Amino acid sequence: MAKELERAGFPTATVTSLAAVAVKVGANRVVRGDRFSHPCGRPGLPRAEERAWRVELVRTALRALATRVEGPTVFELRS
Amino acid sequence: MRIVHYLNQFFAGIGGEEHADMPPGSRPGAVGPGLALQKLLGGNGEIVGTVFCGDGLIGDRPDVVVPDIVTLIDAFAPDVVVAGPAFGAGRYGLGCARVCAAVGARLRIAALAAMAPDNVAVELHRREIVIVPTTATAVGMPGALAAMARLALRLGRGESLGPAAIDGYVPRGRRMNTWAQASASARAVALLQARLRGEPFSTEVPLPRYDRVTPPPPVADPARMRLALVTECGLVPAGNPDHLEWVRASKWLRYGLDGVDDLARGDYEVAHGGYDAAFAVEDPDRLVPVDAVRELARSGEIGEVLDAYYVTCGNHGVLGQMATHAREIAADLRRQHVDAVLLVAT
Hints:
heterodimer; A: alpha/beta; 3-stranded parallel sheet; 3 helices; B: alpha/beta
């Protein structure tokens, strides 16, 4: 999915728990999310903190979209 | 040797798409391409019966129709079953593959299908059945039938096949034990030497190959871009109104987010057979971060967010099919003047 969207010309940030797999199949802008069943969630955190974490995760995706990459690259949330 | 041949309604001579819902039937002897196949088999094997079914029916209701087809096949008491060639036809290819898989599983009889390597059925079934590769269209009929005859005779005699590359079928991804002439270390050095000398060599452990895509240039300024949310996690409105399949999804969908600031518990469910949806049902933003992108749009860090999200289900996704979904989504993103995508993959 990520590759076809990028092939079509859309910079695409892929948020996934399986960053290594995404890199292996050739997704170029990979953002490491949380677990498989909730890549954009942290159910262990209190609600407000989870929301703040998710905003940071999306900020990381924005950074990936605004970064020139040569090939598959993983972007980590700055904590 | 007794051979049964499976065909669709077209190659069985019944008719075209208007007969695609034709129920299963059978005839003694060879029909259509089976006549040429019989010539190639010579005196070594006889096509004792031909079984056929409409492509549409077997495509829509394989659970109902395939058992009936297996019963019709069993009535001819075959030693081996051949299906197709289906060439590039997706539904016919799936029908051939499903019949062969069921014949193997239920009757314990060897079966082989023939179709083009990029037929959608190949990726789905190549691990469980023998598939003879063909051209994409019927122009390759003679070659396909020759290969089918050769392998059918071997399977019908109860022989096990050698490596796919040597015996001419689609690799099943199986590793077979065999006695080597030299130890692994000696073979590895020999491979390296051949490579250094510029001689042909082939690895014993082929790795999967994925093509690379040149990354498009980055967005100049996220604060001025129009962002869209896409996911293959199967998040759909409660009740799954468009019946997104939870496995091998046949479609993608776009759902509006007009006035939606936060995906509310109870409004969404997950059509995906690959993971526990409890956390996502509790708060769907854990899959598709609508609340966070809205917040960043309000604060000006994101220029604009498309008032809709795109969804399909990646569970057991067939690569070719997923690529088609992605290309169609990309075409729609272009119509919506989207600049960049946040994709959530599970």
